[in-house]
Amino acid sequence: MDAPVPPPLDGSLPTVPELLDFHEKHNTDKPWYLFPSKDVPGELVSVTYRDMARASHRIAHHMRPGREGADGGVVAILIHTDTVLYNALVVGIMRAGLVPYPMSPRNSPQGVCHMLETVGCTRVLAHAPTAALTRDAQQAMHAKGVTISMPALEEVFPKLSRGTKADDADVEPYPKPTEHVDVQQPTLYIHSSGSTGFPKSIHFTHRRLLQWIAHNYFGKTAGPRYGAMGLPSFHALGVMLQLIHSLATGAEVVVFTPQHPAPPVVAHPQSVYEVSQLGECAAMLALPTFIEAWAHSSEIVDYLITLTILMYGGGPLAISTGDKLVARGVRLQSEYGGTEFGSPSMAWDDVPSSSDGRPDPDWMYFRALEQAQNMRWEPQGDGTYELILYETDDYDLAVHNVPGERAYATSDLFEPHPTKPGLWRIVGRKDDVIVLGNGEKIVPVHQEGYIAASQLTTGCVMFGREREQPGILVEPSAEHAIDPRDEKALVAFRNKIWARVEEANAMAPAYAKIFKEMILVTDPDRPLPRAAKGTTIRKQALAVYKEKIEALYDTIAQSTNNQGIAAPRTWDTAGLEPWLSEQAQSLVSHEQPIATGADLFQQGFDSLSATFLRNRIIGTLRAADSLRVRHAAQRVPANIVFEHPKIAKLAAALATVVDPSAATHARNPADAVRALIAKYIKDLPVARAGKGVALSDDGERVMLLTGSTGNIGSHILAYLLAEPRIARIYTLNRRSGSLEPRAREQAAFRARGLPEHLLGDLRLVSLTGEITRDRFGLDDAQYEAVITSVTHVIHNAWTVNFNLALQSFEDQISSVRRLVDVAAAAARPVRLLVTSSVGIANRWDARKGPVPEQLLPDPEIAAGQGYAASKYVVEHILYAAREKGVHATAVRMGQACGPKTTGAWGTSEWMPILTKTSVALGCLPVLTGPVNWIPLDAVGAAYVDWMLVCDVLPFLVNVVHPRPTTWDVVLRGLRAELGPCVGGVPLQEWIVKLEERAQDPSAEDLKQVPALKIMDFFRALALAGTPGDSGSGASPEGPLGLRFTTEALLHSSPSMREIQPMTEDNARAYVCFWKVHGFITA
């Protein structure tokens, strides 16, 4: 068969009926639609372009005899019928000079009435299957003169009901328009999903629909025949694939066999597969839910491999499913678009192959159209971008939602391909992003998609906005449905789905981890709300289950439910150790067994995991049969997991809680500090380059920087990149979620107002590894490249968690010894700078004067807090290494504040929290003591100074502001920006107001008064403790803490010698930054 003749798409045929007339003339007997024959198994029946043209004339006569009345009336299509008849109705209504409005029959009567009213609709096509919905809508609209009318199938396609020759008779042509068609007038309406309220009516002008037709979406791979039988005809995807593509190209569309007047064939995975196979499709577009189902059948996958392309759209496809299919040989590709703006992607693209000829593994990315110059990618500060499209002279948008611009902000979030420009992957929507109570952001699409792909479920929705941890609402599939009020059935279902949830957790960052207790199961009589394309409507689902979600959080917070967890065999150490191991194992996202003698926080635990483990302990104690054991639940310390982070030690401590007679003598904290120092300075190597050998000014300077995505690390990286005398910069960061290291660095720069273009420097090599592991977790080639070339090491990565005990930092302490060994083994001197903390001096006696830039000999000064004690150990390791000839320097970091240029001060720190809380309380506290905060830009500049100098650096520098100011200066700046309504009050009075708000706080209280989450810190501040630690040592200097000497700092850094005192303008800049980022709304 000859190839179809394509129509001109230059505007000379501006309407759909005119394009169809072209096909009737030039492609008369070529098929538009193909479907399996009812009468002859294995054969296909075609509906030709002539058939469709004649059908459109008959429908036009039926809808508007003699072209009477005015053009432009809207006709709603509220029917559930076959694809062929449905699209004939759309074209026929257009030929009649009317405007078709396809509507989903799943809309509510109120939604239908709303849509009818907003477009001034005067006619509705309906039939028996939608009679109830039509009746309710008709009753509501009766006074407005709405009529109901629909032609029968035999009137539209005689040959489909009475034989192939029944359509041979000539059809009276419908009268043509008497006036020139205005291409800016509506020719079609399509509605949105209604996820945020009633569906919105979106109109297409003749011009815009022609632009859709003419826009080159389709590449070359679709072939002459493709399947579109699984798509709803009233949806934009159905309009594009069942109507527009054929009008543009003459391609054949395989659909379900018409059943009218019986209901149409139900689109499900098996029926779509069978018709696609029988129709010999070269390509197909399917909904992700169908592809998920097909992936479980080897027979269907074997068929999918034969397709030129399998495209999906309308929702996310689980990455594991797509990877599995592509590995088998399926040519998979994503499609992206929206009713409001069309598709900026190449839908039927030429599918690239990998180097071995197999399908491209980047199937989840779409390629932006080369001619789509109207696209802008708006950075969100976390490595994702929102797509914004702008109207151009030759491409209209149906909706404008950017104030003052003819543009549409999609709210869709994307990630760029790390190495292939022009490829983008959708990761969620702005309104889907879950912002936890701690400010962390979760894009739930991948976890939801993976869990929903399980045969145990039909859908799921994550939740957790403004909470400390996320949860997930799961809808079981029909064969696995349960009554969630049945506790045993609920526990059993959670156990079934748990493996899938754990696998999904492995794809996500630690803060997005879903715990078993946070799995909520839907009620059978309250299914998840869905849009027409089958996707779950998040906002409506969360509204339906709002009370159950809040009740779940209340239960977790109160720890009154042991969630069906079996009790230990006995409550002594022997019984508790295996039980605790089992519980801990279920709280981490890996299969590697928990080692009872190793630190939990080095095996995947975090603060949230510790909270859940303690909750389980308390819940299980309360459920015990023994009254003695139940009473023990009241004696479980809040920090029991932090203080005893090894299973063996935790079991012994818990056994003592249950039976105090089993108590043993606790070890002196200072002794633990001494023991770690002795362990890690033992057998220190002598520097190979020789003791006292200065750094050479010859050759290249090559840096290794750890922790480059943190607050301090990102500023160090920016200043290193701006220095041309540095030859190469390696950054080493731990893996976090799905983001590549460069994307995380980019997000960190964007969030802090640093120049992102610096990250495009070819000198930068961003590595993913783990400094606490052998060879830094790098492959052999990477490791050798680093250690054989590096001349300077800046070790800035460290866990900042003031709840952890010292032993939980041992892996990080060992990483310092590992870096010392690397520096000592180098053939030429290597400079090693390790970030320490002024917090090690939290018990310094201020009567002795300022804290010196020297090693502090008494471990009691730092003991009692794990973080400070770990830094104390590190300083002693570095001192011992320096004695062996290693160029080691401890950078004792003080309170870093926002740069003078941007004021960017991270909102999770104590000072931003104090300021936001003060707005809610209506007053700021008056503090005393020196304000020696150091701006981050000054920190970055100082590190560059230390990288460039060849002279021997001091062993230790106190990085605090060498010219401190007073709180009065800060207070005036804050009040100047916040307004006079936020006055100054004594600190104790401020604390009293805070304590009042701490009584039974609501979720809104925790949001507006974030100091409630770190009450202990501010209580310590009131007792004149040092900000940045949790100690209670008093300081005569006042709540702002100690004074520090800075002679070594000033001697070693020209930048620090030039730094000016902090001013009111600096304080105002902080508030401006917090306002711009929505943290403070005053």
UniProtKB/TrEMBL annotation:
Key word Plastid present: no
A molecular function (GO) term: phosphopantetheine binding
InterPro entries xrefs: ACP-like_sf, Adenylate-forming_Reductase, AMP-binding_CS, AMP-dep_synth/lig_dom, ANL_N_sf, FAR_NAD-bd, NAD(P)-bd_dom_sf, PKS_PP-bd
Keywords: Phosphopantetheine, Phosphoprotein
SMART domains noted in UniProt: PKS_PP
Chain segments annotated as coiled-coil in the UniProt record: none
Domain Polyketide synthase-like phosphopantetheine-binding: 576-658
Gene3D superfamilies named in the record: ACP-like, N-terminal domain of ligase-like, NAD(P)-binding Rossmann-like Domain
Protein name, per record: Acetyl-CoA synthetase-like protein
Species in which this protein is naturally found: Phanerochaete sordida
